[in-house]
Design goal:
Blueprint (H helix, E strand, L loop, with lengths): L1 H12 L1 E4 L10 E3 L5 E5 L9 E5 L7 E5 L11 E6 L5 E5 L6 E9 L2 E12 L2 E7 L2 E6 L12 E9 L5 E2 L9 E7 L8 E6 L5 E5 L4 E7 L5 E8 L8 E6 L5 E5 L4 E5 L5 E6 L5 E7 L2 E6 L4 E6 L3
Parallel strand pairs: 9-13
Antiparallel strand pairs: 1-25, 2-3, 3-4, 4-5, 6-7, 7-8, 8-9, 10-11, 11-12, 12-14, 15-16, 16-17, 17-18, 19-20, 20-21, 21-22, 23-24, 24-25
């Protein structure tokens, strides 16, 4: 009853923000050092270049910040997961086909791009990224180079040093950069590890999109994963966990794309549905100024869901 009441109350007070006409596919989000909401848009139809947008204040309108420098081989960029590092640098997952994906590091001067460098190249499915203790944890939702006899699909979390440049990966769990891998057994939904989040205690969270699992991972002193705990099981409350984020209180938020829901796991392990229905393929949540902003990957809007105290 508590979960249903919360979902009804949140839905009643939610509102929608329209992205600019140049944004056809909103996705990854994060907060910059100036307290602005930053939104990545791969613009999958390529009618517009892949770009990054900003919402400077909760009552304002999103504006285009910059176009992401295109991949030389494809001629376009597809920015999905994004995060900031401690010096204000922005890390961008450029999701490309044919193992052309990149993890980019973009630095700024007076809010304009000063330099764009590749941390890693040759990625199969660069999806989500988070910075933690001088390292970058990146999800690859599908490792196309892995051919399994049982028909299941492989995915993984890759770790790079923030100082790495142009690291080329092999896109299998045997890669030295792959610190955690998972298998998706759902024959209809092949995507695996998708979103990624970190909390103030240094734990890493990720979800298996196809099987509906959410993992809590513990990195060791060298950054590699030493413990994994499945906190949402297949067939549990989340249908397809996509993007994830953690707020200052340690609550984990889940954008459940096919479940059409925003969900939350509290620090004591309670699973709550904050809103069910009304999204358009929700792909990423971000907590900002007392609300959860949810990117509608299947549309051109953000939904704003107020959070109860």
């Amino acid at each position: 009853m508590l979960i249903l009441a919360c979902a009804a109350a949140c839905a009643a007070h939610a509102r929608t923000i329209q992205m600019p006409p140049t944004c056809t596919t909103p996705d990854g989000m994060c907060i910059d050092s100036k307290g602005r909401l930053v939104i990545a848009a791969p613009n999958n139809d390529h009618s517009q270049p892949g770009a990054v947008y900003r919402l400077d204040a909760p009552g304002g309108s999103p504006v285009k910040w910059f176009d992401v420098p295109p991949c030389p081989e494809s001629g376009y960029a597809s920015p999905m997961g994004i995060c900031f590092g401690p010096d204000g640098e922005l890390y961008v997952c450029d999701n490309q086909k044919e193992s052309r994906g990149r993890l980019l590091r973009i630095t700024f001067k007076d809010d304009r791009i000063d330099k764009c460098e590749a941390v890693a190249v040759g990625l199969d499915n660069a999806n989500g990224v988070k910075y933690l203790n001088g390292r970058l944890y990146l999800t690859q939702a599908f490792l196309y180079g892995v051919k399994r006899g049982d028909g299941a699909a492989s995915s993984g979390i890759y770790m790079f040093a923030a100082t790495d440049r142009n690291v080329r990966v092999g896109n299998t769990p045997a890669d030295p950069q792959c610190v955690f891998s998972d298998v998706t057994r759902n024959p209809e939904i092949r995507g695996g590890l998708n979103g990624v989040a970190v909390d103030a205690k240094g734990f890493i969270y990720t979800g298996n999109y196809g099987d509906g699992r959410v993992w809590k991972l513990t990195p060791g002193a060298d950054g590699r994963i030493v413990k994994s705990e499945e906190i949402v099981h297949a067939g549990g409350g989340s249908v397809t966990p996509d993007g994830l984020c953690v707020d200052a209180a340690g609550n984990l938020y889940i954008a459940d794309m096919r479940g059409d829901a925003l969900e939350r796991i509290t620090p004591d392990g309670r699973f709550e549905v904050l809103r069910k229905g009304g999204f358009v393929k929700p792909s990423e949540p971000c907590v900002w100024n007392g609300a959860a902003y949810v990117a509608n990957y299947g549309g051109t809007t953000l939904d704003v869901v107020p959070l109860a105290d």
